[in-house]
Known about the structure:
The complex is a heterodimer. Chain A has ten helices and ten strands. Chain A has helices spanning 44-51, 74-80, 97-104, 113-118, 121-141, 156-168, 186-201, 213-219, 237-241, 244-251; strands at residues 6-15, 18-28, 33-37, 59-64, 67-68, 82-84, 174-178, 205-209, 222-227, 230-235. Chain A has a six-stranded mixed beta sheet, with helices on both faces. A four-stranded antiparallel beta sheet of chain A has the order 2-1-4-5, with helices on one face. In chain B, the strands form two sheets. Chain B has a two-stranded antiparallel ribbon. Chain B has a two-stranded antiparallel sheet with strand order 3-4. Chain B is globular and about 55 Å long. Chains A and B meet through α2, α3, α4, α5 and α7 of A and α9, α10, α11, α12 and α16 of B.
Amino acid sequence: MVEPLxxxxxxxxxxxxxxxxxxxxxxxxxxxxxxxxxxxxxxxTTFFNVLTGLTVPDAGEFELDGRRYWPKEAxxxxxxxxxxxxxxxRLFPEMTALxxxxxxxxxxxxxxxxxxxxxxxxxxxxxxxxxxxxxKLMQDIGIDRYAQHQARTLPYGDQRRLEIAxxxxxxxxxxxxxxxAAGMNATEKDGLRxxxxxxxxxxxxxxxxxxxxKLVMGLCDRVTVLDYGKVIAEGxxxxxxRDAAVVEAYLGTPHPQAQPRRALA
Amino acid sequence: xxxxxxxxRPARAFAGAAAVAVALALLPILAGAMGDAWVRGLxxxxxxxxxxxxxxIVVGFAGLLDLGYIAxxxxxxxxxxxxxxxxxxEHFPALARAFPGGLHMPIWAVLPLGAGLAAAFGILLxxxxxxxxGDYLAIVTLGFGEIxxxxxxxxxxxxxxxxGPAGITLIEPVHIAGLDLSHSTTVLGLRVSxxxxxxxxxxxxxxxxxxxxxxxxxxxxxxxWMAIREDEIAARTMGINVRNVKLLAFSLxxxxxxxxxxxxxxxxxxxxxxxxxxxxxxxxxxxIVLGGLGHVPGVVxxxxxxxxxxxxxxxxxxxxxxxLFGRVVIDAEVLRMLxxxxxxxxxxxxxPRGLWPAPRHGVVAAVTPDxxxxxxxxxxx
Lengths: 265, 381
């Protein structure tokens, strides 16, 4: 069996009295689109934050591309090869769209303060390459016409695309998307699906948190379902959809007096 | 876009630079016709340009509010004062034996030393405040500025390092290649006054500071600073080591202050702690807010305007009031603070981004004719 690209085991995180993650494990193979679903408050975003070094876990083992890592510092995780987007878009609003993507190249470039001040040939060549690569990436995603626009002036759907472009600029092995379709209309969702398929075709593995069941089922190769910080199901989208525990987590038990625990996502 | 920018660059940029150079060279000669005090004012304007640009790296680029910036100016000034005056050899016999001729460190040794020590103090300040933002950061930096000033005020006993509130006198002027900048000299039969030579030296340093700032701004590091200013968490997930980048902002910004401080000590020939009060920090901050936070040309404009204001008032406040009211109603110094206050309120109300802010890009959708929106839309796939 081939080693998975990302493996996380026994991940625990407690916030005061709340066990946000309890023994969560996940294994994502290369080239997959992997879905992470669950009702609101299940711990999906916490898991993302742990995986990308924004929240330090209490316990757990992490391995990316055969290398163990401990997600303590977000910038190291990014350098290692995991890039992410955020549920509520976090662009650099006053910078231009192009500059946003250029920031994404930071982890893969080296020019330091002295290079910048002296404009060494190396720094100049690198700066030109950053600009060209970033523009190319924006072309691929289809947002290059906004290159010189301030990020905050972009339409909502294109801000999401810009965030994906910025994440791809870090040359990730794993692209982690936190609800990329949130707030999108049907047309924009179709565009997103096509975009994710194109990204996958370039060899980038994708981890996806998403509430839109149709999008998850149509796109993902495998799915993990979280509820109350625990993995309650794992498998192909088809199997997971029919899993009794998953149905219960989303809809509640079919007892006549039972209230649905939470609204359907 | 990028090609166009580089294509129009060489000829026009060269002509522009030449015009600015000629203007800067002739300016003090015009100002000198109205009195040497005006040229002195221009010298201070150049010093404040350096200070404002240094603070702009911290506040404007990296978004870290610093109310104690003048401490780095003080560090630079005292490094120069101590290493180029008889103070240390007078109070430390061991040093006097080691340097029987007295300490005469040349400016080219002292300036980097002052810049380096100021940068070290920048890291000293930056390290404990890495997690602080906004108001909290402002309070800590304010305290830091005061600590440095109070130290300078009190480090005269039991060992006299700084001579306390009396300050350090007899600081040597700048010597460049045997030329003493404190005495006027004759070039091609023209008398060049001391203050004029200082003007050219300070303007050269200020121009250098501008170039350094512009280059930093358009670099990987400059983008990283702006990214942490805009959204620190997103910046971290882009692989930016926020700790290092913030410390670099503090130390690079501080080194500008250190160099300006060294030049200040040499130019004045005297330093004392009262030159480095909280008010000075606030004035430098007002300069960059007035001019345009984060925008280098705006910062320079703000610094020159506020630095020249006292000089302008000194020459106009009294005569104008006597002409209007027949007597002096408001003292020039009071009027200066009044105008600072009015300017700050006015800016906040009418131009919150400063007099000369960074241009806003593409607020209006600007689709170029050869790339209509439909074609771009089609590539969405």
